[in-house]
Amino acid sequence: xxxxxxxxxxxxxxxxxxxxxxxxxxxxxxxxxxxxxxxxxxxxxxxxxxxxxxxxxxxxxxxxxxxxxxxxxxxxxxxxxxxxxxxxxxxxxxxxxxxxxxxxxxxxxxxxxxxxxxxxxxxxxxxxxxxxxxxxxxxxxxxxxxxxxxxxxxxxxxxxxxxxxxxxxxxxxx
Length: 174
Hints:
By secondary structure, this protein is mainly α. 68% of the residues lie in helices and 0% in strands. The protein is built from 8 helices and no strands.
């Protein structure tokens, strides 16, 4: 849906970003080990709120979120790794391709690898596939032409993964 154009409210949210983004990303680390994909949980709430913040604050949210992502994206704790990937996917709607272009180009190979790594947890693969779908949906112009063959190859391989991962791969292809 549309967000209000009340500039004063947007300015308040922008001012709170240095405090709000770390809070939301820490909430996104509260995944349940046996979470049901159809049940609403704290982690999903944090991701949804971050998406709304990104749609409201647009480019202003990117640098702060990228700090949280880079500090957690390769963490041994899958909760932090998955939350970082979800945070990246959650900010795809709102910021411009000019602002997210380089981060997308840097993240895409890692996301494709994570999605297709056999020993990776299904939840991390699923979130990686969803994030690739978000990139394809909102910032396909940032994907370099030379990356398209490897993107398509990884997506085709992803169709053979668990059903919920394959569903997000279909979203990316669409």
